[in-house]
Design brief:
Mean pLDDT: 91
Structural class: mainly alpha
Strand content: under 5%
Number of strands: 0
Number of domains: 1
Shape: elongated
Radius of gyration: 14 Å
Largest sheet: none
Order of helices and strands: HHH
């Protein structure tokens, strides 16, 4: 499943990166500073990071749940 998941996650990563840029620009246009570090994003996130390396099926389950 590596290749299939890799392509799916790469697509998601790209789309999220573009969305983050749009949201950050909007935050700045409202006069506030957008979070700019992974630590800041982690504090704001509602989806928590896995402690280890999940199995492929768990990655998909986590993605759907998120």
């Amino acid at each position: 499943m590596f290749q299939t998941l890799h392509l799916m996650f790469m697509t998601q990563y790209t789309e999220l990166g573009l969305a983050v840029a749009v949201v950050a620009e909007r935050i700045r246009s409202l006069g506030a500073y957008a979070p700019g570090t992974y630590a800041a994003y982690a504090k704001l996130a509602s989806i928590k990071e896995d402690a280890g390396v999940p199995r492929a099926t768990d990655m998909i389950r986590n993605l759907v749940a998120g």
